[in-house]
Predict the 3D structure of the following.
Amino acid sequence: MVTVDRRTLLKAGVTATAAGALGMTTTGTAAAAVPTPTIHPTSEWGARPASGAIVVENHRPTYIVVHHTVDPGNNTDYSLAHALQISRDIQNFHMDTRGWIDTGQQFTNSRGGYVTEGRHRSLEILRGGTQHVQGANVGNHNSECIGIENEGLYSTVDVTTALWNSLVGLVAYIAHQYSITPEFIKGHRDFNSTECCGQVLYDRLPELRTAVGRVLGVSVARTEAEWPLLKPGATGKKVQLAQQFLRSSGFDVPTDGVFGKSTTDAVAALSARAGLEQDTCTAAKAADETGFLGADVWPLIVPADRSTAAWRADLSRT
């Protein structure tokens, strides 16, 4: 159960009844002061104008989503000038290669700890605290997510201290502005079949939730298990279960527990048939994730006799 100050709830327009529904309890203690981070706006890094209308959702986001950029990689230039340059590079890639109207994510966090505004108007709307700019960084969930791209590749190495500290500060500020409790801090892979935000950074999300909760002055409830991510080359019981489910869905795959070509092809075909979005953040620039089996594929293949929460819990123990 998360504990928040009653005055904070009233400021956010949340009643005691609504707070209970959200899993929060009120206390009489003063809410923690949340510092406002320095965020360099699009005007500072020379962003191109958006090629289409910026959509502003008339509600708060539900989730704060953590990404890694992959490319640029783990650069050792920690300067502000470099942070502004990667913002330009990401926007160019998203607009010129992906065909998006603007940068996909709302904010970008550099390895030097500098935060920039990504999609136009994200900072302005965040300061209002009641709406959010729709991005293009989480396939099929952009109306409910606000995304942060973290410069680097974090599949096998850790983030810099500066990046971590700025990430905690930025996420805490966003959470405060939108009355989002730490349990709703997620990784990109919690929505789409992607490596993002890298295994090392993903494994630190519980630590991030705790750190943000500390800044907010709230305790952090235990989060539910998430869908596991399986990639070509994986082996084991989870792969074997996925193959059994795929066979039940009409795909001719072995049940040997080896994520080989036929299994990869089956997952790719299923994803295409279901219209699942691919290449939904900067991380996809450097890696082909076609055939990955993750959060948006599992619900298509698991038997319908149990809830998704039950399946996630069971798979986490497999």
Summary: The mean pLDDT is 90. The first strand starts at residue 2 and ends at 5. The CA atoms of residues 5 and 29 lie 6 Å apart. The longest helix spans residues 161-178.
